[in-house]
Amino acid sequence: MKQGILDRQARLLLTMHTLYLTSLGLSNTFVSIYFWKIKNDFVMIALYNLLTFSAIPLTFWVAGYMVKHLDRAHSIRIGIILVAVLFALVLLLGNNASHYMLSLGFLLGVGAGFYWLGYDVMYFEITNPSNRDLFNGVNGFLFSTAGMIAPFLSGWLLSNMKNGYTIVFSLSLAIFATAVLASIFIHNRKAEGDFSVRGAWRETRKPTSWHYAMLTHLFWGIREGVILFLVNLLVYIKSSSEFSLGLFVFVTSGVSLAAFYITGKWMAPHKRMRAILIGALMLIAAVLPLFIQVSFYTLLVFGIISSIFFPFFTIPVTSITFDIIGQDPVKAEQRVEYIVMRESALNAGRVISIGCFVIFAMFTKNPDTFPYVLLFVNLMTVACWICMKQIIQNGDKIENRGKNKRMLVKLGAGGKIK
What we know:
mainly alpha; Growth Hormone, Chain: A
């Protein structure tokens, strides 16, 4: 792949990923609301998400073996199919789905685990340090577009159609099927060697750049775990309307779309640390209006500020982490194992976050107390910045060094996939 250019496989991956995210935006945005309407229980919904994020890292180990011995395209397809099966089951079970909430959460995690490992491996293979920020910016732009349109459409359907949930879940299944068809055009390519994370695990335990990258993802996961479901649930509780939630996601995703596009264009390696700090501080500041009052409008302010500055955080953190893998031929050869460790750290943080929320929710079910939870988890972004800063201070320039270039192209990290 030429520097600063996204080739056909990169565009295909972005297309397939957008279909996957669009389907999730249609259905998964409202699954927690669906369960809430059946059973008003913060703890059960949190446990549903806890099982999801617990299943993801466990699945990575199975998917990692598959990617090493078969192909990452198989992992992607299996992931999409399993998530589609989840929503088919919710559709078939109807109100009885609440009785199987934890099992459904685990199934969603298994599907997501297969999909995300295959996606991350392919992402690493088709990008390099010169176009990784561009790919992340375009990906964020498309993610925000899907996240803007799909939930708004779902919210309208759920508010205006008698069988709204049936229509939404059926439409989601059709888009999942299209994503599977798109995955057929991915070039088959298995990784070399046996699957073993011992090397990546040993490096995680040492004070290396990879060690600090894993701490970053642990803290990032602590931030993400609660945010991923609690904010949307609060919006619905305060507005009592699926359409209002769809409107909330439409507005915040629209802002995020513009922010990802602008940040992706502006971002460069020498700007990354400044961007992470700005993003971290503004994500914390976004919570402050909620201490005045938890309402639809203060939640909207929180969502807009977060959407503007989240790309400042996520684009450079993702790029730096994959550059750490790509700068070393040994790491590049063991890219599957390092990606498994990265995702395991991220989801371990999510499990810790949701587990703490479950305990918190056992003592109070008052939504007006939840801003303290949101403030705490957003403070984790400062810890991420400190860890990223340690990587830079250790003298790692995180770049595609000339002495490794031929090896990386051979391995596929920035070279055309043969």
